[in-house]
């Protein structure tokens, strides 16, 4: 998702299409948040 967001962001900037730039920024931010936040209990619990 981060890669798709980055590609859309670059295409939007170079082709000067604001819609692609906005979608690219949104996908880039969501992809980074999903990569940094552990979802689904990925922490190892030691008893």
TrEMBL record:
Name this protein carries in UniProt: DUF3096 domain-containing protein
Keywords associated with the record: Membrane, Transmembrane, Transmembrane helix
Transmembrane segment boundaries: 6-37
The species this protein was found in: Nocardioides kribbensis
